[in-house]
Amino acid sequence: MKNLTITVDDGVLEWARIEAARRGTSVSRMVGDFMADMQRREDAYERAYLAWRTDERTWRSSAARAPGRGGPRSAALSRKASA
Prior knowledge:
Elements: H1 10-23, H2 27-53, H3 72-82
Protein name: Ribbon-helix-helix protein, copG family
Organism: Paenacidovorax caeni
Region (Disordered): 61-83
């Protein structure tokens, strides 16, 4: 593993130390876990985006007209439109 040096506000560091103690871990481990989680999310997003971009399906409807609901008003409207 490699070391990483970061700069944070004093209040943020104090919160991180308390939170790490509450979780039974270290600030270093929390930062490492956070970065690993971000990497997994970014990789998953990238895979989903590429899958979407290469998806061959189309959502266009066929040339045939979609069927109506078949109610009396629908039939009346169809007769009016053809007149």
